[in-house]
Amino acid sequence: MSTKSSARWLDADEERAWRAYLRMVVAVQAGTAADLAEAGLSEPDYEVLSTLSERPGHTGTLHAQADKMGWSRSRLSRHATRMEARGLLRREPDPADGRGCLLVLTDRGLEVLDSAAPAHLASVRRHFVDRLTPEDLAAVERISARLTGHDLMAG
């Protein structure tokens, strides 16, 4: 039995929806990434900085941050090394996990985030929010929850 004969092919509506989704993700990410690059940040940089800024003491574990981003700990560790070299964060030993570390937002990292945030928010609005109706935004939330298993309103 060949793979081709056992494959459950997409019908025309499914194919159009899949390709529309891919185009949407690429277009929105390309727009917001280009705008962040003007501030000298990548999307992962911004996510790490913004998440740490919301945590008590501007500190979080490498493990929790990697989980939030959907990255492996080793991938985030390499990225954190580059951010640390730029003075955006520092690492400290994790007293709760001898093998882990804490990521701590530096004053410079907070300044960079504070400087980039208004332009990033404007970019998100320009490339995504302002192009959709409130009903569209609610539909995106419902679809996201179904596809990811995460209720965004629950945290």
From TrEMBL:
<dbReference type="InterPro" id="IPR000835">
    <property type="entry name" value="HTH_MarR-typ"/>
</dbReference>
<dbReference type="InterPro" id="IPR036388">
    <property type="entry name" value="WH-like_DNA-bd_sf"/>
</dbReference>
<dbReference type="GO" id="GO:0006950">
    <property type="term" value="P:response to stress"/>
</dbReference>
<dbReference type="GO" id="GO:0003700">
    <property type="term" value="F:DNA-binding transcription factor activity"/>
</dbReference>
<dbReference type="Pfam" id="PF01047">
    <property type="entry name" value="MarR"/>
</dbReference>
<protein>
    <submittedName>
        <fullName>MarR family transcriptional regulator</fullName>
    </submittedName>
</protein>
<dbReference type="InterPro" id="IPR036390">
    <property type="entry name" value="WH_DNA-bd_sf"/>
</dbReference>
<feature type="domain" description="HTH marR-type">
    <location>
        <begin position="14"/>
        <end position="149"/>
    </location>
</feature>
<dbReference type="InterPro" id="IPR039422">
    <property type="entry name" value="MarR/SlyA-like"/>
</dbReference>
